[in-house]
Amino acid sequence: MYVRGASDEPQPVVGHNLAMTASAPPPLEILPEDWDRALCVPAHPDDMEYGAAAAVARWVAQGKHVAYALVTSGEAGIDGVAPEEAGPLREEEQRAACAAVGVQDVEFLGFPDGTLEYGLPLRRAIAAAIRRHRPDVVVTVNLRDSYGPGALNMADHMVTGRATLDAARDAGNRWVFRDLIEEGLEPWNGVRMVLAGGSPEPTHAVDIDGYVEAGVASLKAHRAYLDAFGANAPDPEEMLEGIARGAGSRIGVPLAASFEVYPLRLL
User: Model-level pTM?
Assistant: First the structure.
């Protein structure tokens, strides 16, 4: 959830709290929660922890099963740590972050951090994960080109979000990636919707009052990653509560997590 500026120094993404714009943003719809299983497909360790993890904590508390399939291990994310060391470290931090919101089912798809390319190998890997986990809902990252004015998105996020949206449909088509059936992965067309967190054009939100603390703990679990930003590191409580207040104002609750919803079936 960080980008690099012209100086090549890591900078936190800002500007995507729509509640802080000059004119009041339109209200959002309440996210339907009449489902049982979700699969989260972020590009990197820490992507889910900028608001969406608190929603995950809520869903787990409701008794839903939530799993994570991370496209990369975030091995290129710490400038002073070689990828060979950073990858395992960030995987460990992600598992701790997941545990903070009650998620135990975590896998890493092994694609290269920082150089993701949209294409059939990535779609296939995500479709396979969807067939393995058989979710009703898939959660991914912002696939648009920015988080709002002055806050450009990064390639890995856009590629992952786009590939996940397409893979959610690929997973249900037995004639796409037919070799997956030979591996025992039967088609799964049960995905009702794909949720993109961090979108500058959210459509829905979920009340996370009572779960922000778990979301903060989830972000804090990425200690080595956040420490690497030094003075640029955000204050987790302040940042996450600010984002949540902005989304909450759009559904009439104190704190919320917002998503852009891409329906694959009627909500």
Answer: 0.91
